[in-house]
Structure formats: structure tokens, C-alpha cells
Amino acid sequence: MTEKRLGKLPPRYSFILNPYTDARLSKCPQCNALTKQKKFAILIHIDKWGLAPLGKTCRWCSRCELIMVHQDELENVLTQHFSSVAPEIIGNKYLVMGTVDMKVWRKGLKGPGPTMQDVLDHTADFKKYCSLEVDPGGWRFDS
Q1: Which of 28, 46, 63, 123 is within CB 3.0–4.6 Å of 94 for a Cys-Cys bond?
Q2: 124, part of any domain
Q3: What is the pLDDT of residues 44-76, one digit of tens each?
């Protein structure tokens, strides 16, 4: 059985969406190495809108090939972008689908951009979606 994929490029990177506003990912949750910042063109599906390629600076672990996005930052960017384009979709559910080749994404910044089919032809799905659970630490009573 073949796995359904959105993009034509082979799956690349793992992805984690950090829902915690008080936990910033300065270290990789998988290998504990310091993370760096790197700009990615991520492809997002937004309910009642469709696909939207978005340039976003993300936390990045090159050792694990893990892209980390802080949910509150992503939602602020989406709100800013769509407040003038389509304010009715602000607050809709969304899913980060994969990454788009940066050259193809940049074409859209310089005028008439690539077609959606061209974007999909240059999209790589994620290898894996990861979840994040934060342990606040501190003292605990024995149960």
C-alpha cells in the first residue's frame, strides 16, 4: 500500500508545533542540542481557505532535522497576513503540511508567483510530526 503524500518531493524533516507560550525551544527536545534559527517556506492548509505558503523563521535542530514552530508566533503571523486578505478565516483551524522549496516560494515575493501546482511540485511533506509535552519540574509529593 502506498502512502498518500501532498508534495512531489521526498518527505523531509520532522516537525513540532509548540503550543506552550511559556516554553521556548532553545534546546532540541529530542537530542538536547542548542537550536538555531532558520527560515523555511512552510505550506499550511487553512480550513475554508486552502493552502498557503508562508515564509517563517523557525527553531531548527540540524542534528535531528527537526523544525520547531511556536504556535503563538505562527498564529500572529497568520493573523497579520490574513487581516487584510481574508479576515473571515482568522481563527480557523490549520495544519502545517510540509516545506516548499525556497526558490519557488521567493518567486511569489517578486510579482506573479508560481501556480499552486508548481508549489505542490516543489513541496516536501514532513517525515514525522512530533508532539511536545513540558514537565514543569519542581517538587512533588509521592503518590
Answers
A1: 46
A2: yes
A3: 999 999 999 999 999 999 999 999 999 999 999
Provide the number of structural domains found in the chain.
1
34 with 27: CB under 8 angstroms?
Answer: yes
CA 4 to chain centre: 19
Residue 1 lies in a domain: no
Residue 140 lies in a domain: no
For residue 1, pLDDT over 60 is answered with no
Range of the domain at 94: 14-20+31-130
Please give the DSSP secondary-structure letter assigned to residue 34: B
Question: Whole-angstrom Cα distance, residue 137 to residue 55?
Answer: 34
Q: How many CB atoms lie within 10 A of CB 61?
A: 24
